[in-house]
Amino acid sequence: MYPLGPRRLPEAALIVFALMAVACGGEDPLAPDQAATPVETGGTAALLTAQRIVFTSKRNGNSDIYKMDPAGQNLVRLTSNPDEESQAAWSADGKRVALVRPRLNAANKVMSDIYIINADGSNGHWARSTATTCPLSHPSWSPDGSRLALSLYCSGTQYVGYLILNTGQLGGYSTGFGGLPGSWPTYTKSGQIVYLGGTAKTVDRINADGSGHKTLFSSTTVVIQPALSPDGSKLLFVRTVWDALPNADIYMVVLGTGKTTQLTWFSGSDSQPTWSPDGTRIAFTSGLSGVSQIWTMNPTGGSLARLTKTTTPEVDPSWSR
Q: What distance in Å separates the CA atoms of residue 237 and residue 248, rounded to the nearest whole number?
């Protein structure tokens, strides 16, 4: 691993594959759109279930972070800042949420940075006292909550990085010849890190110290947004098909056999899969209703359930662990 030094980097736009509202025509066969309804703000709603899903919503104009239970009930707004917030991720103990938020750095440039809040939306603060010199994204908590894995976008390339929370040390994993290219890193229960390789055609795994590299899955085409099942036996990923309009679908590969199954076939784009803690459900973003909403399904692609029912984009689901 190597620390991220204080050198000034060229300005670079953060490349994040965001599949937002994709018109698909026709009405949702399962549930009609509804106007957004007021919800309670962070800290005022009782949590009635142990499992929760955080997500990004524009129902009040800005991109804010909300949480709900796996049935789409007990909705709580966690942030209400004028900044655009996204990519929220639960800590393993369910007590904190890391998210991505724009921040002005010392060079007077706006960069995406990591912000931390409690599970009820309180105690919001930057993960580091000093603003970053290159954009950060895709935070994922280590099992003990002491650090985050994340994507660093530096000098035109995305790298797999880390952030030690009690010291604020920000760095990147090393190949021995520089940074480790990759994105969408997530911690496993055992403390390893699964990430999308630099070519976007492999899903790889490393130990928390950067050692033990292994390729879990290889593809002949570009994939994004890998999500390993809680038991480590199955891997979800998203593949985009370019036709008249770009259309993304969710796939699952069984790592022991290599068997790959397409889970979604809808006319709207389906992306951003996240597993339930027991591996029996998958939450994801879909344009099936004509605007991006949060849905769940089982690991065969069946038993669809729509959780959010607004006319504004709802994206970035992340299931508590």
A: 10
Among 305, 320, 291, 303, residue whose Cα is nearest residue 58 = 291
Which residue bears the tokens 């724009």? 102
pTM: 0.84
For residue 174, the cross-strand partners are 179
From 236, 248, 294, select the one nearest 54 (Cα to Cα): 294
For the chain, the C-alpha Rg in angstroms (whole number) is 19
pLDDT in tens, 29-83: 233 333 333 333 343 333 334 789 999 999 999 999 999 999 999 999 999 989 9
d(CA 89, CA 91): 7
The residues, any chain, with a CB within 8 Å of residue 302's CB and separated by 6 or more, are none
Residue 207 structure tokens = 């130990």
CATH numbers and ranges of domains, the chain: 2-319 (2.120.10.30)
CA dist., res. 205 & res. 197, Å (int): 9
Q: What is the DSSP string of 111-132?
A: EEEEEEEETTS-S-EESSSSPP
How far is 217 from 30, CA to CA, in rounded Å?
Answer: 34
Yes or no: say if 201 and 237 are a contact pair by the CB < 8 Å rule. Answer: no
Burial class (CB in 10 A: 0-12, 13-18, 19+), 316: buried
CA angle 212, 279, 32 (to 5 degrees): 130
Can you give the three-state secondary structure of 171-224, one letter per residue?
EECECCCCECEEEEEEECCCCCEEEEECCCCEEEEECCCCCCCEEEEECCCCEE
Q: How far is residue 65 CA from its own chain's centroid? A: 12
